[in-house]
Amino acid sequence: MKLGIMLPVSGIQASPANITTIAQAAERLGYDSLWTYERLLRPMAPVWPGPDGSLERIPELYRTTFEPLQTLSHVAAITSRISLGTSVVNALLHPPVVLARRFATLDQFSGGRVIAGFGQGSVPQEFATANVPWKRRGAGLDDIVAAIRACWGPDPVDYDGRFYAIEASEINPKPVRGTIPVVIGANTDAGIDRAARIADGISPVASTLDTLTAQAARFRVAAERLGRDPAALVVTAQANTPMTPKPAGEDRPFLSGAPRQLAGDIERLREHGIDAVMFAYPPSDEISVQIEMLDELRALVTPG
């Protein structure tokens, strides 16, 4: 089972020093991937669904969020092996040529270690700030991913899509491997089906074991119906639940608790064909405690 970690790019532990420490520790401990994500702004208006269904402000932990690709550029310079992914960059907030070149540049500087995780975005104020119509969500993601892939392909790049057009041009640099794996963050049926059409993998949020395995099955079945090889596609469970030094109670959420509890959950995921787990919950424990937990978990989970 491959294991990944969301870097401390937001929350009380977010700092260049802590990002550096966790990145180097993860590589030393044998983790497979490091991840960042994008939050363009934190609106003052309530836009986040609360527990009772009413809208609340986006949580305080997003008050400061380090820019994802700039952060990974730094991490690329201080690591040598570990994969570098985004989960996710909100692709529609960027011109496709700009985004394609930024990912390809990072891929060149990292020696081909990049995973491009894209999402369609969920905050209307971010779309307004980027001057992108909110209604572009959905079909717009298909189009921008196709435009980005065209930019990574052979020159001259000539693309004419529904929302984006690129006149025949040379666009460089290109990715080290000729392309970059694209992973879509999705949890809805429509999003999963879209990922089956256009992506190399999917990273649903792991709410329950049953929900996650059903999402993985839908993704692979949909891909196979489209003539794609489902075995070549990667399912990464994103755990938005806390890893804790002490064991959690029996009512703990799936993929939460102490390393030994997490190891048991991960083995159940392996049995259901999940390829990887990425721990994304912003930790509040001291960095030294986080590294101890990561060390224990890696020792408990068989690689591969």
Structure report:
It contains 9 helices and 13 strands. Helix 1 (16-29) packs parallel to helix 9 and helix 6 (189-198) crosses helix 7 (209-225). The chain is an alpha/beta fold. Helix content is 38%, strand content 16%. The strands form 3 sheets. Strands 1-2-5-7-10-11-12-13 form an 8-stranded parallel β-barrel, surrounded by 5 helices. A two-stranded antiparallel sheet has the order 3-4.
Blueprint (SSEs and pairs):
Elements: E1 2-6, H1 16-29, E2 33-36, E3 48-49, E4 55-56, H2 68-78, E5 83-86, E6 89-90, H3 96-110, E7 114-119, H4 124-129, H5 139-152, E8 157-160, E9 165-169, E10 182-184, H6 189-198, E11 201-202, H7 209-225, E12 234-239, H8 259-271, E13 276-279, H9 287-300
Parallel strand pairs: 1-2, 1-13, 2-5, 5-7, 6-7, 7-10, 10-11, 11-12, 12-13
Antiparallel strand pairs: 3-4, 8-9
Helix pairs in contact: 1-2, 1-9, 2-3, 3-5, 6-7, 8-9
